[in-house]
Design brief:
heterodimer, A: alpha/beta, 6 strands, 37% helix, B: alpha+beta, 7 helices, 51% helix
């Protein structure tokens, strides 16, 4: 499957999905004009990828989103639910969520996403501002 | 009478307003003002959480106005509504406030005030529960997720306050004040 790459803007994160490495990365703030429009191709790509994902492959998903508005949160939740479904179907999916140590709100936001999910979900503090 | 900008500025300053914008909100204006808000607060050595909360309330308020305006495009009052947006970020004795205003059609008032009254009545735990439910709900059509007002109420240090003033037979002016 082809890579999915979307460059970062002021209000949208960088999307870097590399199926060959089994690594998906979302990095940056998210408060676009229309979050559903922005995330739609990302969710579509993910559906297709998860469908054909081998049960033996360990898929790692990195999130680093210092700020997420509410409509983007909705889309991130939809994305996490897709990963959760794949995990419940026996696929090896693991989430790592990075946040700046001083950004308590970003951690709180991650913790709320994590509630009710059963897939491995690690929150990792970054010491320095990138 | 000519507009006296100095008087206008004094009025804003007397109310503690630091940054304000009146007019049509675009995504670009929202992003630039958002940056200005963040930069201003960073120089003031305010806690990161406060900066985050003010920025967040600012984004939700302005995007709510923008989404509402977008939904009214093509209607008789579409332009009037789109041009009626105003936001003021300021400092009060207790902290910061983000205030927004815009015109709404009278037929939308009942839904809006019912929604706000529902949210205002909830404590932080109940708000969290409602937020989580709404976050996991099937998506309603439109640009919004139905989370903005709940999110603002969760970040607020005081109960949200709002007013709706009838302007004429069609329109009212809606003001929302969020203290962080």
């Amino acid at each position: 499957m082809e890579n999915l790459y979307i460059g970062k803007t002021k209000s949208t994160p960088e999307i870097n999905f590399e199926p060959e490495k089994a690594k998906l990365k979302i990095e940056g703030q998210s408060y676009p004009e229309n979050a559903f429009k922005f995330y739609e191709p990302v969710l579509t790509w993910l559906d297709e990828y998860l469908r054909q994902l081998d049960h033996e492959v360990v898929l790692e998903i990195y999130f680093h989103m210092p700020y997420i508005n509410t409509s983007s949160s909705k889309c991130v939740m939809m994305l996490l639910e897709k990963l959760e479904d794949a995990y419940r179907n026996g696929k090896k999916v693991a989430v790592r969520w990075y946040y700046e140590q001083e950004n308590e709100m970003a951690l709180e936001c991650a913790e709320e996403f994590k509630e009710d999910l059963t897939l491995p979900f690690a929150t990792c503090a970054l010491k320095e501002e990138p | 009478m000519a507009l006296n900008l100095h008087e206008l500025q004094k009025l804003l300053q007397n109310h503690g307003v630091l940054i304000s914008f009146s007019g049509r909100f675009t995504q670009e204006i929202i992003e630039e003002l958002g940056d200005a808000v963040k930069k201003y607060m960073e120089t003031e050595a305010i806690s990161r959480n406060d900066i985050y909360n003010v920025f967040s309330v600012f984004i939700e308020q302005t995007q709510n106005i923008k989404n509402y305006s977008a939904a009214q495009i093509g209607s008789a009052d579409g332009d009037k509504i789109a041009n009626s947006g105003i936001i003021a970020i300021g400092k009060s004795e207790a902290g910061y406030f983000v205030s927004s205003g815009n015109m709404v059609t009278n037929q939308d008032i009942a839904t809006l005030s019912a929604r706000l009254d529902e949210i205002v009545a909830l404590d932080k735990d109940a708000l969290k529960k409602l937020y989580k439910e709404q976050l996991r709900k099937e998506m309603p059509p439109g640009a919004g997720a139905g989370l903005g007002l709940i999110d603002m109420a969760r970040r607020a240090s005081r109960t949200l306050s709002y007013s709706i003033v009838k302007l004429d037979g069609h329109m009212s002016f809606f003001t929302l004040v969020v203290h962080v």
